[in-house]
Amino acid sequence: MTLSTHSRRAGLVALAATAALALAACSAGSTPAASEADDNGFDLITPGEIRVASVGDAKPYTFTDENGEFSGFDVELFTDVADRMGYDVVFTGQDFSGLLASVANGQYDVGAAAIGTTDERKETVDFSDGYLAGFLTVLTADDAIQDESDLAGERIGVVQGSLQEAYAVANFTDSELVRFPDNNAGVSAVNSGTIAGHFLDYESAKTYGEQFDNLNLAINIPSFDAPAGFVVAKGNDELLAAINVALAAAMEDGTWMELHEKWFPGSPMQDKYLPESERTGSDEG
């Protein structure tokens, strides 16, 4: 499913152009239009437009609403980033397991789906600066599961290619991992009793827990060492730099904070993503 999200472009092109020109070592001049900025190294599939690979079932990060349109924290944040750069955005949904490869091989310009930054993934794509960190959670209907030791001998669901899968492979060594294409399939398996629990991010787990009274968030594991980032194909340095400039601006002017309050009400905010005037110095990682 594909959705075009048109951003306000007047007066915002200079941000992206500045980053591109700086990295390309070009001399200062007049601010180029988006299509001219593309010629300066943004290497977009379609000039004037950023094509974004995402997923449709990772609420509140990225999901399709009742009208089939993309919504969520990551969607709104990247739309704002692209808006500051002077570009329109087209979001396309697909299975998470193929998302990084689709960006790496040039099918999409950017990946945006709460993608945790890891060294292994950096071998395939380049990551923007981090913009979100949180917790990994085991969602279950079994009251006997209360800590990681209770997972021994159990069948636990993970989304193939996700950060949760990598963590589970390394740490849930006594469990049988069952891989699913998306969270909906994993939660359905929990509800049908074919697996004991599904391992996903905390915010998505919270949403499913509100949807299904029988499910509870049994185990919450900090994941501050792998913050979410936007991804681009390796070597597209000018595009990555422009994204980072716009992302930093969204944090400093309070846009990130407003979106976090909207999509994660009541959840703690990571200090380093707040405007400098709002920081307390409390982040540990």
Structure description:
Residues 1-33 have low confidence and may be disordered. The protein contains ten helices and 14 strands. It is an alpha/beta fold.
Q: How many beta-strand elements?
A: 14
Task: Kindly report the oligomeric state of this protein.
Answer: single chain
Order of helices and strands: EHHEEEEHEHEHEEEHEHEHEEHH
The percentage helix is 25-40%
Q: How much strand?
A: 15-25%
Give the overall shape, derived from the CA principal axes.
globular
User: Class by helix and strand content?
Assistant: alpha/beta
Gyration radius, rounded:
19 Å
Mean pLDDT: 86
| Separate helix tally | 10
Distance between the termini: 37 Å
Largest sheet: 6 strands, mixed
Which regions have little confidence, pLDDT < 50, spanning 5+ residues? 1-33
Main-sheet strand order equals 1-6-2-7-14-8
In brief:
The protein has 10 helices and 14 strands.
Sequence-ordered SSE layout with sheet pairings:
Elements: E1 2-5, H1 13-24, H2 34-42, E2 49-54, E3 57-58, E4 62-64, E5 70-71, H3 73-85, E6 88-93, H4 99-104, E7 110-116, H5 119-122, E8 125-127, E9 135-140, E10 155-159, H6 163-171, E11 176-180, H7 183-192, E12 197-201, H8 202-211, E13 216-222, E14 228-233, H9 237-252, H10 255-263
Parallel strand pairs: 2-6, 2-7, 10-11, 10-12
Antiparallel strand pairs: 1-6, 3-4, 4-5, 7-14, 8-14, 9-12, 9-13
Helix pairs in contact: 1-2, 1-9, 3-9, 3-10
